[in-house]
Amino acid sequence: MNCFLLVARLRRSSAALASPRLEHGLLAVTAAALVGGSVAHFCDAAGLADLLWGLGTVSAVVPAVGWVLVALRRGHAGVDLIAVLALGGTLAVGEYLAGALIALMLATGRTLEETAQRRASHDLHALLTHAPRSARRRTDDGVVRVPLGEVAAGDALVVGPGEVVPVDGRVESAEAVLDESVLTGEPLQVTRHRDEAARSGAVNAGGAFDLRATATEQDSTYAGIVRLAQQAGAESAPVVRLADRYAAWFLPLALATAALAWLVSGSAVRAVAVLVVATPCPLLLAAPVAVVSGLSRASRRGVVVRDGGALENLGRARTLLLDKTGTLTVGRPSVLDVVAAPGHMPTEVLRTAASLDQFSPHVLAQAIVDTARTRRLELSEPTEVTEEPGRGARGLVKGHRVFIGRVDAAQTRPTWAKAVDNRALLDGATVAWLAVDEHLAGAVLLRDPLRLDAPHAVRRLRSAGIERLVMLTGDRAATAQEVAAVLGLDGVRAELGPADKVAAVRDERRHAVTVMVGDGVNDAPALAAADIGVAMGARGSTASSEAADIVLTTDRVDRLADAVVIAQRSRRIAVQSALGGMLLSLAAMAAAALGLVQPAVGALLQEGIDVAVILNALRALRAGRAEHVVLAPATEALIHRFAAEHDDLQEVLQAVRAAADRLAGVPEPSALASVEEAHRLLTERLLPHEYAEEHQLYPALAPALGGPESTETMSRAHTEIGRLSRRIATHLQLAQANGGMTPEQLDDLRSCLYGLNTVLRLHFAQEEESYFSLAP
After folding, report:
1. Of the candidates 516, 466, 458, the residue with the CA atom closest to the CA atom of residue 489
2. What are phi and psi of 271, to 5 degrees?
3. pLDDT tens-digit readout, 542-576
4. Are 280 and 82 a contacting pair, CB within 8 Å?
5. Which backbone phi and psi does 177 adopt, to 5 degrees?
C-alpha cells in the first residue's frame, strides 16, 4: 500500500517530464496490476490476485529484457539486469506479489529517468525560423527576389529595412546600420561603412543598402551557427544514471550471493529470495525520488530543469561559463548619465531629448524616454518629427529645432563635448548628442548596465562549490574586462563568435564538468556543447531555451545559484538514500541466503527498506539552509520602494557631478547656482531617502540577514554622505557671506562634490546588489 501511494505521488511529480509511451504504459499497467491484485487478495480471491500480479510481472519482463540488451550492447549492465533476474525468479517459484512490486519499481524508475538521453535532439526551430529563405538580387532588369540557394559569391544584393542579411558580404553603400545581436548578443546597433563586412543573420536596422555577396548560403555565418548547434548537441554524451553507477558493484555482489546460496543449500527458492531482497529499489526509486524532488524544488525558484540527468550533472559542476549581455548585464541599454553644455541643465537636456524620442522605435530612444518618465519629467509633444535610420531624429520641441542622435566624428567639438567622448570611451558607453537650434546642448550616455543580482549570484555560486567562473562574450575586450573586474571573475574571453564560444566550452569540458549560461541565438551552439546548458528564458531567445538543459524562467541570474545549491543537495540526498538502502539490502541478502527470509517476506522487507529510504529522499523537497534568503512581504515592499527611489535619485547624482564639473578650471558665474541646485536636491530628496533607509529598511532586513551588524557598513556610508552634504552647505554659507566663492574654497568644494558623487554611486551599487537583489 505504501508503494501504491508513493507511485501515485511519483506519477504526478514526473508528469512534467517527457516520457515515451512505453514507459508511461508500463507504469500504468504495473500499477493497475498491483492494485487489482491487492483488492482481489483482500477479497479472498487468491487465484485472481496471483493472476493479476503475474500479469503485471510478465508485462515488465519483455521491455526490461530489451533495456538490458541495449545496455549490454553499450558495454555496461545497469540495475535493470538485477530486476530482470528477480522478475524471472519470482515467476519461476510462484512469488507473484514480489514480482508485481519489482515490476512497479522498475517501471517507475524508468519513467522518472528516461529523458536523460535526449541531449542529441535539441530543437533548433527558432534558429531555422530566423534564417532567411530568399534574397533581393540586383540584375540588369532591376531588383528581383531569388531563392537563397541561387545566390553566388559576387552577386549584387539589396537588403531592405528590417530584413535579415541573407549571406555574408561586403557593404557597397555609404554605410549600413545593423543589429547584430543574433550573432554577438550585444544589444547596441553597429554601423558598417563601405567595403566593410556584413555577416548573414544580422538585421538591417537602417535604410536599404547594397551588399556584394562574398559567400554562398551554406558558407555564410548564420548557416554555420545552425550546423554548430546540431553538431554540438549530437556529440554531447548521454548522462549516465546515478543508479547505474552504483549498480556496477552491487550487481555482481547480488548475483554472487544468490548463486552461493543456491549452491550451498540446493534451494532455488533461497536464491530467488536473495534476488528479491537484492532488487535495487533504493536505486530504482530512491535516487529518482530525490532528483524529482529537486526538480520540483527548483521549479518553485523559477528554474525549469529538463531532466533528472541534468540536475545530477549540475550538482557535480565545477566550471561555469557565462555570456555577458543579457546574462550578467541587463541586455538592453539604459541611461548612464546626462551631461549638459554650459548654460544648460541636465534635467532640461533629458526632458528635451525624451520629448523628441517619444515616437522613435530605436532601442536607445526608448531608454531615454523610459528614464525621463521614471524621473517624472513632463514631456512636450514634438512636431515635424523625421528620423534618419542609424543617425537620429529631428523635430520641433517648444518651437526649437532639436536633433538627438549621432554626430559626425570629424565635426569640431567644444571642450565639454570632448570630455564626453573621453568618458564614453572609458565607460564603454554610447553617446546620444542633443542639438538645439543647430548648437550642441548636451549628451546622454547609455550603457548596458550590470544586473543588480549578478554580484550576489557570483558570490553564491562560489560558495556552492563552483571553482572557475569565466565570461565568454562577443563584446569588446575593454568593456568585458570592466564587467569581469567588478564581478571578480576568473577569466574573460572577448570578441568571440559562436564558433569561438563552442571551442571555449569544449576546452573547459576537458578539465571539469562545465555549465554554459546564455540568452541569445548566438549562444545556442555553446549551450548545446556544454555538459549543462542554462538559458535565460525570461527574455532570452527561443533557440537558446531549446538548446538548454535548464531554463531560468525569471529574469534573475541568481536563480542559477539556487539551482546549483538544490542540485548539490538533491544529489547528496540521492547518494545517501541509495547507499543507505543498499546497506540494508545487503543485510537482508545475508538473511535470505541463510534461509531466514522467504521471497514474499523478502518483498515486504524490501518494501519497508524502500519506504525508509524514500522518505529520506523526499527531504529534497524542503528548502536547504544555503538557499535564497526568505523575506517577509512587508520587507519586500520596502525593498521595491527604495529601489524605485534609487532610480528617481539618479537626477540628484547627476546634479552633484555636474556642479563639480562646473568648478573645474575657471568657474563660470553659473557655477555657484549649480552647487546651490545640487545642495537643494540633496536636502530635499536624497538625505530624507537615506534617513528612511536607516530607520525603516535596515531594521526590517536585519532579521533575515542575521542581525543589525549586517547593515553596519551601510550605516557608516550614510554617515559619510551626511558629513559631505554638511560640508557643502558650509561652503555655500561662506560664499553667501563673501559675496561669491573665493579661490581658496574651490579645491575643497570640488573635492567634496566629486567625493559625494563617488560615495553615493558606490553606496547605491552596494545596496542594490546586497539588499535589493534579495527581493523577487
Report:
1. 458
2. -65, -40
3. 555 556 778 776 677 888 888 888 888 888 887 88
4. yes
5. -100, 120
